[in-house]
Specification:
CATH architecture of the largest domain: Beta Barrel
Bound molecules: flavin-adenine dinucleotide
Number of helices: 6
Structural class: alpha/beta
Strand order of the largest sheet: 3-6-7-2-1-8
Shape: globular
Distance between the termini: 34 Å
CATH topology of the largest domain: Elongation Factor Tu (Ef-tu), domain 3
Number of strands: 13
Largest sheet: 6 strands, antiparallel
Oligomer: single chain
Helix content: 10-25%
């Protein structure tokens, strides 16, 4: 139902006469940025806002993200639109070849959070081509760990793992913040505590009953929590560093970590 609706909305956005969309191949193939039209927003959880952007012809691998111009003016150049404002990275939650879905956590104040709250259908969105190396590779089994923002990244990755064994923990503020992810994952709730340097998420990962041989771990979200989980896997469980793929997304006091 959702993707059918999106496809219809995308078709009408692309069919619009004198469309303001800019899909010039130069933009997203050459300069790395393109412009799409926001066709819909909704709340997947009370704090996680999905933004659907009409954008055909992108190459995307689950786990990759885009960089979005969330504030500041655009600059025209040779028929293209270059970003000059503030950039923030958002994982692609889904892409069906015509509509790109992003999910932005409303954590409070920041250019990215403000942009997503204010976004309305009809807005133009300037963003990079999908990029990033946090993608699913062959492994004996997978471990996923992170919080609300990491859950956005993991959703599409988990849809590609097929029958592989999956372990992991996702920590969110409360039950209402859960996304429908793989059944192999455990959920933990912070109940109002900060997600920064989350000892409870790190100790939940330490408590997992994992096979004796290392698998492949994906750990994302708040930087200090990511670091603690990587240290545990490498130091306490003896996993090779190359089998622990990490990506810090945010941390208190820092802005735009990518
Ligand atoms: C590769 C990558 C993928 C990402 N994917 C997503 C995604 O799919 N969805 C998503 O929502 N974010 C994602 N992020 C984080 C995103 O890029 C922004 O950092 C985030 O939206 C905050 O931007 P901001 O401008 O609102 O706040 P900023 O100005 O960047 O941060 C201001 C302050 O807000 C606080 N803060 C920021 N983020 C959070 C948070 N999540 N929880 C609590 N406090 C916070 C911190 O104290 C920070 O110092 C991703 C980051 C990277 C690097």
């Amino acid at each position: 139902m959702t993707s059918q609706l999106s496809r219809q909305e995308a078709r009408s956005a692309h069919a619009r006469p004198h469309s303001r969309l800019n899909h010039g191949r130069l933009n997203h193939r050459g300069l790395g940025f393109t412009t799409g039209e926001l066709i819909r927003t909704d709340l997947l959880t009370p704090r996680l806002r999905r933004l659907c952007v009409a954008l055909p012809d992108l190459a995307w691998t689950p786990g990759q993200h885009v960089r979005v111009v969330v504030s500041g003016p655009a600059r025209s150049w040779a028929g293209g639109v270059l970003p000059r404002g503030t950039l923030r990275s958002y994982s692609v939650f889904d892409y069906d070849g015509s509509v790109l879905q992003l999910c932005v956590l409303d954590h409070g104040d920041g250019p990215g959070a403000r942009w997503a709250r204010a976004a309305r259908p009809g807005d133009l969105v300037r963003l990079s081509a999908p990029q990033g190396r946090l993608v699913v590779r062959p492994a004996p089994y997978y471990l996923f760990a992170g919080e609300e923002t990491a859950a956005v990244t993991f959703g599409p990755m988990l849809r590609t793992v097929g029958t592989a064994r999956v372990y992991g923990v996702i920590e969110v503020d409360g039950r209402a913040d859960r996304l429908p992810l793989h059944a192999g994952l455990a959920w933990r709730y912070r109940d109002g505590r900060s997600a920064a340097a989350s000892a409870s998420l790190a100790s939940a990962v330490a408590g997992l009953d994992l096979p004796s041989q290392p698998g492949l771990a994906y750990v994302a979200g708040e930087a200090r929590t990511v670091q603690a989980i990587r240290s545990h896997l490498v130091r306490d469980r003896g996993w090779p560093r190359r089998q622990v793929l990490t990506k810090p997304y945010w941390t208190p006091g820092r802005t735009g970590m990518d």
